[in-house]
Amino acid sequence: MPELDEIDRRLLHLLQRDSTLSTQALADQAGLSTSPAWRRVKRLIDEGYISRQVAIVPPVKAGMHAMAYVQVSLLDHREESLERFDRFVAFEDQIIECATITGTSDYLLKIVAADPEGLEHFIMRRMLALGIVRGTVTNFVLRQTKYTTAMPV
Fold first, then answer.
1. Across-strand partners of 110?
2. Which UniProt keywords apply (predicted)?
3. What is the DSSP pairing of strand 66-74 with strand 133-140?
4. Burial of 130 (0-12, 13-18, 19+ CB in 10 A)
5. What CATH number belongs to 59-140?
6. Which residues share a beta bridge with 74?
7. End-to-end C-alpha distance for the chain, whole angstroms
8. 29-69 residue pLDDT tens
């Protein structure tokens, strides 16, 4: 992949802030004419610098008033256990982020629910019911002081 130049970085910066910008608005803000702006954005998409464009819905607007980070330790690390947990994560909409991590836990999940009881229910009745989780450590989010999906480019 070729290196990004300053114009590519400017376009990525603008699109990460507002992907609904028209090509004309994007071109104006990036100091380009419309055609070169469109070609560059197309190239950024084709080369994988832009993987998708989404609408970001605030959790509260979706009725999700509780959020927690949950560290998960599995009973074992057999391939079937890992695959089963990964499938569970992939199909559970309440899990909005998942990463395998180093340290005493295997995974770090970000989970949302309508209320704290909903989070408890999800952890106790859905996740622990899998029978492959050794333990969890849950940290409730009291207040989110920063949230962004923008990468520094």
1. 69, 97
2. DNA-binding, Transcription, Transcription regulation
3. antiparallel
4. middle
5. 3.30.70.920
6. 133
7. 15
8. 999 999 999 999 999 999 999 999 999 999 999 999 999 99
